[in-house]
Specification:
The complex is a heterodimer of chains A (about 475) and B (about 160). With about 475 residues, chain A is α/β, with parallel strands linked by helices. In chain A, about 45% of the residues lie in helices and about 10% in strands. In chain A, the strands form three sheets. Chain A has a five-stranded mixed β-sheet, with helices on both faces. In chain A, α2 runs parallel beside α6, α2 packs across α9 and α14 runs parallel beside α16. The radius of gyration of chain A is 23 Å and the shape is globular. Chain B has seven helices and five strands. In chain B, α1 runs antiparallel to α2 and α3 crosses α4. Classes of the chains: A alpha/beta (about 475), B alpha+beta (about 160). Chains A and B meet through β3, β7, β11, α13 and α18 of A and α2, α3, α5, α6 and β2 of B. The structure holds flavin mononucleotide (FMN) and FE2/S2 (inorganic) cluster. The site of FE2/S2 (inorganic) cluster has 12 residues of chain B, from α5.
Chain lengths: ~475, ~160
């Protein structure tokens, strides 16, 4: 299947970050088109396009938008929230979109807001993304000055306010209800669903939440027409996706491809294969939260159904390539450490379970686990799965259980040999995770003269 | 201090409810207080948003970008999540530890630089990703570290 660009198509040859450049390739024509249509008609295009969410869960965008009440049928304001919190390990595609085609994203936000009858949109942007914040803010300013948003959008009589809300470093705020809590000024702890955000979201009002890439697809859908868009890709997986390729591969980066392209094409042909003459060992196809594939499964197509058949998920479209230098127990440990660090602490199975997983995996890695403890690990995974308000715990349990299932021999050798068979030579050997560092941090004495004095005087005054 | 109060009030005006402004408010307060949030900062934010200092502290402690302890004038953050780790993040971290003379999680004795590891920074294809004072350096190899530290020291 040929490489195909839709969202990033002109960005290789032109600077699309400025309004003039974007307008020169027909930018904001889709918005004009949408404003000439009834909201229902725009929604019909999205439904025809059958575009599925690019944030992770893959829910059809048009259907989600159709769950919101009609603006005339609710006394409450309707909100649109763009999820730009991108933090699933392996994923860096939204950043590419925000930095290179910010106006495409802004146009998508405006059209989506119009479609659901919202006058107020929020962009929840990952706090670490400073350069992206600057680019998106500049794009919004330009769009506002040109009348594409703000009061009386293009003379339509409809007003739209767009606010960029910067996060502050918490993976869980990418989960839609954790995001809403955070946006309301609380700790980002997920809510019980139902009610779903479409009915009761931001400030208990109907809210549509979509990923950056999903929203950036909207102008393209209107440009092509929903039916034509639906013909790109394969059945049940319409369109293109921006895949983030990383790990042990020659040319890491973001590549926009038609859905249905195989992992082999992405890794070997586009990514240049595995460096240093090493061999492919495993592939994480959709961000660190999804089950792993083995080298033998490299011909699996990158689409929703093929991935499901292979027992994994397309997730956030982040393909992490792993070569034969990597110890799978260490990989499991590092993945579990991340989710333990990011667990919001609300649900017991996730809060305690991820901790147990880390402890057990560390014991296995150090060659000190008994046979029974490997079973306990799987048992813990099992008890997390599906037992929490949000799938963060599952995001640790699913991949780790898959590493055991697909690389059982390697886990077994750690137990039988009483040591890591890689003998300190694994690519992940000794990696310091932030959870380890926090312990170190507490032990360390920070001697910052001026600041320390200030802190002491504060402690004296208020302690 | 009224400068901070006014700045927070004006950010809060963008939201239907002022409590929504707590993250931007804490960010402003942290800038005002040399990169971390002393007890006083929580009182300022609480006053401006009509919340309690304890509430503000509870929210701040949830987020990695807020510091409840003093930090150095500069911050070096090394991603050690999977993609970066696979391509040598640990060696990059160790190079920084050697160059700065502190371990991850610590600040240099002169109060200039805090070094820490962070989870996936969102640049995985260009690992190892190192974030210096909120600006991304990608990819960073161990041999690039001395230069980055030199620039940092020169900037001080
Ligand atoms: C733990 C967790 C983290 C998530 N992080 C993100 C994220 O960073 N960005 C994102 O768009 N979706 C993320 N999601 C998915 C969102 O909950 C939601 O499904 C998505 O934003 C909906 O947009 P879409 O339908 O356009 O994909 C996350 C989900 C979970 C459970
Ligand atoms: S793993 Fe390092 S930036 Fe994503």
């Amino acid at each position: 299947m040929p490489r195909r660009e839709l969202l990033l198509e002109d960005a290789d040859t032109r600077d699309l970050t400025k309004l003039a450049g974007y307008e020169a390739i027909g930018g904001y024509a889709s918005l004009r088109k949408a404003l000439d249509m009834e909201r229902q008609a725009v929604l019909a295009e999205l439904l025809d396009a059958n575009v599925r969410g690019r944030g992770g869960a893959g829910f059809p965008m048009g259907r989600k938008a159709s769950f919101l009440p009609h603006p005339d049928d609710t006394p409450k304001p309707i909100y649109l929230v763009a999820n730009a919190d991108e933090s699933e390990p392996g994923t860096f595609k939204d950043r590419e979109i925000l930095l290179r085609v910010p106006h495409l994203f802004v146009e998508g936000v405006v059209i989506a807001a119009y479609t659901i009858g919202s006058g107020h949109a929020f962009i929840y942007l990952r706090g670490e993304y400073l350069a992206e914040f600057e680019v998106v803010t500049a794009a919004l300013e330009e769009a506002r000055a040109a009348g594409y948003l703000g009061k009386n959008v293009l003379g339509s009589g409809w007003d739209l306010t767009v606010v960029v809300h910067r996060g502050a470093g918490a993976y869980i705020c990418g989960e839609e209800t954790g995001l809403l809590e955070s946006l309301e000024g609380r700790r980002g702890q997920p809510r019980t669903k139902p009610p779903f955000p479409a009915i009761s979201g931001l400030y208990a009002s109907p809210t549509l939440i979509n990923n950056v890439e999903t929203l950036a697809t909207v102008p393209k859908i209107l440009e092509l027409g929903g039916k034509k868009y639906a013909r790109i890709g394969v059945e049940n997986s319409a369109g293109t996706r921006v895949f983030s390729l990383s790990g042990n591969v020659v040319n890491g980066g973001n590549y926009e491809l038609e859905l249905g392209t195989t992992l082999r094409e992405l890794i070997d042909e586009i990514g240049g294969g595995i460096p240093d003459g090493r061999e492919l060992k495993a592939i994480i196809p959709g961000g660190s939260s999804v089950p792993v594939l083995t080298a033998a499964e490299v011909d699996t197509p990158l689409d929703f159904d093929s991935m499901a058949q292979a027992g994994t998920m397309l997730g956030s479209g982040a393909v992490i390539v792993i070569d034969d230098r990597c110890c799978m127990v260490q990989l499991g440990l590092r993945v579990a450490q991340f989710y333990m660090h990011e667990s919001c602490g609300k649900c017991t199975p996730c809060r305690e379970g991820t901790r147990w997983m880390v402890q057990l995996l560390r014991k296995i890695e150090e060659g000190e686990a008994t046979q029974g403890e490997l079973d306990v690990l799987l048992n813990v995974c099992d008890r997390i799965l599906g037992n929490c308000l949000c799938p963060l715990g599952d995001a640790a349990a699913m991949p780790v259980a898959s590493y055991v299932a697909k690389f059982r021999d390697e886990f077994q050798r750690h137990i039988d040999e009483g040591a890591c068979p890689f003998g300190g030579e694994s690519s992940l050997a000794g990696v310091l995770a932030p959870v380890d560092q926090h312990d170190a941090h507490l032990r360390s004495q920070i001697e910052v003269p001026g600041i320390r004095a200030e802190r002491e005087s504060l402690t004296e005054a208020h302690g | 201090m009224s400068g901070l109060y006014d700045a927070i009030r004006s950010v809060a005006a963008r939201y239907p409810e002022s409590r929504s402004a707590i993250l931007p408010a804490l960010r402003l307060a942290q800038q005002e207080h040399g990169g971390w949030l002393p007890p006083e900062a929580f009182r300022d934010v609480a006053e401006a948003l009509e919340l309690t200092p304890a509430y503000c502290r509870a929210v701040a402690s949830f987020y990695d970008m807020f510091h409840l302890e003093p930090v150095g004038r500069h911050m070096v953050e090394v991603c050690t999540n999977v993609s970066c780790a696979l391509v040598g993040a640990q060696q990059v971290l160790e190079a920084f530890e050697g160059e700065l003379g502190v371990a991850a999680g610590e600040t240099t004795p002169d109060g200039e630089v805090t070094l820490r590891t962070v989870e996936c920074a969102g640049g995985c294809g260009w690992g190892t990703v190192v974030v210096v004072d909120h600006r991304y350096h990608e990819p960073v190899r161990p041999e690039d570290v001395a230069e980055i530290v030199r620039e940092l020291r020169d900037a001080s």
